[in-house]
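TA notes, week 10

Several of you asked for a full example with nothing omitted. So below is the full record: C-alpha cells for the whole chain, then the designed sequence directly under it. When grading your own attempts, check the secondary structure regions first.
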C-alpha cells in the first residue's frame, strides 16, 4: 500500500513556508518564530506546536476589524512541521523583502507573527461605498500565505500609464502603493432585463501588482464599515 502513496509523502524542508501540492501549505515551525494562521486551517502537524485562538495581538486590532468580532486568527508556536489548508483552495506563498501587500481577509491563510499588520481603509473608494472599504495590510521581512479559488493571475500594472480594472469579488491582494479608485458601468445581463444593470470595478494605477482569482467569490469580500 505504501508504494502507490509514496508520491504524496512530504518533501524535505527547504523554506519557512512552501506548498505541498497546490492546495496545502507547509510551515517549518521554530521556537521564537511564531505564526498567525486562519482559525481552523490546521489539517496536520508534526512535533510540538501550541495554538492560541484570538490572541492578544488580534484582540488589540479587533476594534478596527469590520465585523467588530476580530480577525479569525490563531497564534501558532513551537517546533515541528505545520500543515494548513482552507477547503481545498489554492495556496500562494509570498516572501516579503521589506515591502508590503494589501490582502482581503478571506484570502489570508497565514503570516509570520513578527510582521507589521493592521486593518486599513482602502483610499479612493469612499464615495462608492459610504464610509469606505477596509483591507488587511502586511509589511516587513517575512512570509505570507494567501488562498485563491483556482489558480490566480498576477497582473503587473507596469509603468502606471494605463489603469487595471478588477471585479472586487475576484480580487485577492495588491501592492498598497497603487492608486485605487472605483468605477461603475453596466452589466451585460442588463441587456436582457436581469438585475439592476450596474457593475462596480476597482481601478488600479501606478507601480505594483494585483492578484486576481478566477472566481467571483462574493462571500466576505472587501468589508464594508457599518
Amino acid at each position: 500500500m505504501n508504494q502507490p502513496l509514496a508520491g504524496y509523502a512530504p518533501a524535505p524542508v527547504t523554506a519557512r513556508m512552501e506548498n505541498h501540492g497546490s492546495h496545502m501549505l507547509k510551515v517549518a515551525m521554530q521556537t521564537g518564530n511564531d505564526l498567525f494562521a486562519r482559525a481552523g486551517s490546521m489539517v496536520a502537524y508534526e512535533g510540538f506546536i501550541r495554538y492560541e485562538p484570538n490572541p492578544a495581538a488580534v484582540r488589540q486590532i479587533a476594534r478596527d476589524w469590520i465585523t467588530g468580532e476580530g480577525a479569525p486568527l490563531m497564534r501558532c508556536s513551537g517546533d515541528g512541521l505545520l500543515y494548513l489548508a482552507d477547503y481545498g483552495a489554492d495556496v500562494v506563498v509570498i516572501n516579503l523583502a521589506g515591502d508590503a501587500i494589501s490582502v482581503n481577509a478571506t484570502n489570508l491563510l497565514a503570516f509570520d507573527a513578527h510582521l507589521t499588520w493592521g486593518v486599513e481603509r482602502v483610499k479612493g473608494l469612499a464615495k462608492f461605498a459610504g464610509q469606505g472599504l477596509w483591507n488587511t495590510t502586511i509589511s516587513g521581512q517575512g512570509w505570507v500565505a494567501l488562498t485563491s479559488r483556482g489558480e490566480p493571475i498576477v497582473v503587473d500594472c507596469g509603468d502606471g500609464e494605463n489603469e487595471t480594472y478588477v471585479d472586487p469579488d475576484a480580487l485577492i491582494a495588491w501592492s498598497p502603493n497603487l492608486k485605487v479608485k472605483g468605477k461603475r458601468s453596466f452589466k451585460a445581463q442588463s441587456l436582457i432585463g436581469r438585475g439592476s444593470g450596474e457593475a462596480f470595478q476597482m481601478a488600479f494605477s501606478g507601480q505594483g501588482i494585483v492578484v486576481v482569482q478566477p472566481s467571483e467569490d462574493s462571500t466576505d469580500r472587501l468589508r464594508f464599515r457599518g
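The mean pLDDT is 82. Use that as a sanity check on your answer.
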